[in-house]
Structures are given as structure tokens and as C-alpha cells.
Amino acid sequence: MNWDWEKLQDKRQRQFGNGPDFKNIGDEFKRITDFNFNIPGGPKLVAIAVVLLWIASGIYIVEPDEVGVVQRFGAYDRSTGPGPHYHIPFPVESVQTPKVSQIQKVEVGFRSVGVKEGGGSQYKAVPEEALMLTGDDNIVDVQFIVQFQIGDPVEWLFRIQRPYETVKASAEAAMREVVGNKTIDTALTTGKLEIQNTAKELLQSILDRYNSGVTVVAVQLQDVHAPKDVMDAFKDVASAMEDKNRVINEAESYSNDILPKARGQAAAVLNDAQAYRESVVRKAKGEAARFASILAEYDKAKDITKERMLIEAMEEIFSNPELEKVILSDEALRQSVPYLPLDRQGKPAAGRKGGN
């Protein structure tokens, strides 16, 4: 069978199009690469563009919460505030922009490992950091967070090699020293706030000695508990301490309520007694003065005064209808046992005559 190869070639080109022409690939590549050099002044334009891009690379912007720290040949040169700035491009100068307003944190005794399905964070304990010895030779598990800011960006960047590791190690050392001066009961119950404040002050002094440029914002205890092996026993102790404090608070509350009332009642009794005393004294003085005046008159005329006093007393007795009067005759008085109607005492009556 004779094949018409030219017809087959034409049919294939109509179906699939022309294939690549390998003969012209080299020519096309040469044409593209020689394009700039065929333009008048092409190499100079490329060089100028490269220089302009290099110069433009020195423009940088410092955000409001940042500080620009410019290094010249690796050494500190100057600091810049927020806004656009310029530095000599690499390799002469370089710039770093640490965030000085951002509050950063390090975790000691635990690590955050993610978020739970229902919300909240998941933590992983780090026993080699958390287990600490107390002042009464007990072991306590302390997990806490240190919040800090970059106070001096120059010291932060150039004084210490690994700033975050330095802050964490210093915080752990400070907390161990503070906990080592407390009893385990204090660390588990009432001494947490004092531990936080003391650890913050001690950590700041340590970092200042290192010239770290770090400002400690807060030291926050996340969890303080006894080791798991003795957890139940310490929970019982803590519960007993809470009951003790509750009873003390209730007693103090009752004392604060009852003492003012008792003091008020005592003051009222004293005032009443003082008033009664003054009344009795005034009455006694008045009676004494009256008796003294009567005695003076009595000394002047004893018989007349005696008769007048007797008459006044009899008038007072007979004029009082509520008094029961018993009158005895001379004959009744001469009897060995005079009869007195005492069974009728207390009943108002007119004068009655006693005797036989």
C-alpha cells in the first residue's frame, strides 16, 4: 500500500494544530534577552532603577505602639517615634520596631496548648517549674503568669540575648524565693495576694540588675495547690480553715452588733442613775433645809411650835380620806391587850372608835 505522507501531514495539522517549532526557540529567547540592550541607554536605565529601589528600601513606618531602633553596621545608632522615617538601606543600616505598648506574658509552671471544644483554654502542667519548696519544708504546686512591657527597647534588644527566656527564668527564681519564705497554709489560703506583690517587686529588681529594659506589669497566680498525692488532705485542711474564718467573722459580726447596744444601754442606766442621784440629793437638801428652819423656830418657842406641829399633823391625817383612822379611848388603852381592827385596814372609812 502506498501512503501519501504529505496528505497525512496536512490532515494531522488540521486536527491538532501546528506543534512546537524547536528550530525557532533559540531565536525567540535571544530576541527577548537582547530587548533591553537594543534600547538606547538600556543598561543605564536598569542600573538607575535598581539604585532607586535600593534607596526606597530605606523607608519604614513606625506604628503608634512601636519604637524604631536603627542600627548602623550592627551597632545601635538612634531611636525613632511613630510615623514614617528613613534610614540608609541595607547593609549600612537596619531597623527593628519592638512593640513597647503591648502587654506581653510568659507562663511559668504550665503552658497553654489550645482551646477546649466547649470554650476555654487547655493547659499542660510543667512540674519542673511549678513544684516549689515552702518555708515549713512542704511542697506546693505554683502556676503563674508574668505580664510585662518593654520599657527600654534598646536594652531589650541589645543587653540580653534571649529576653523571653530571661524573664521566665527570673520570674521562676523570684517566685521560689518568695514561696520559700511562706508556710504552705499561707500559700494555699490567705497569702496569695502578698505572694503576688512580693514576687512582682523582687522580679523587677532582678530584671533591673540585668538592664533588661523590662517593666513588670503584674504577677498573677493561676493555680496554687498541694501535690496530687496529698491533694485531698489539703482540701480538708483548707475547708477547715474556711470554716474557722467563717466562725470568726460571724463572731466578730455579732460582737460588732451587740457591743454598741450594750454600751448604749449602759450609758442609759448611768444617765438614769445620775438623774435619780441628783433628784434624791436635791430632795434631801430641801428636807434638811426645812427641818433646819423648823428647828430654829422650835428653839425660839418649843411649846408653841410643838403644839402647832401636832395640830398640822392631825389636820393632814384627818383631811386624807384614804387613810383609815382608829381612835382609842383611855379605857381601851388601859387594857392589857387593846383591840385594834386591823382586818379592816386599807378600806376607806370614816373615823371609828376603838375599845370596849
Question: How would you describe the overall organization of this protein?
Answer:
The protein is an alpha+beta fold. The protein folds into three domains: 46-97, no CATH class; 104-227, Band 7 domain (Tetrahydropterin Synthase, Chain A), CATH 3.30.479; 236-317, no CATH class. Helix content is 51%, strand content 20%. It is built from twelve helices and 13 strands. Strands 6, 9, 10 and 11 form a four-stranded antiparallel sheet that branches. Helix 10 packs across helix 11. It is elongated.
Strand content: 15-25%
Which fold name is given in CATH as the topology of the largest domain?
Tetrahydropterin Synthase, Chain A
N-to-C SSE string, H for helix and E for strand = HHHHEEEEEEEEHEEHHHHEHHEHE
Largest sheet: 4 strands, antiparallel
**Overall strand count:** 13
Task: Compute the average pLDDT.
Answer: 81
Indicate how many domains the architecture comprises.
3
Subunit structure: HflC and HflK may interact to form a multimeric complex.
Main location: membrane
Protein name: Protein HflK
Domain Band: 57-238
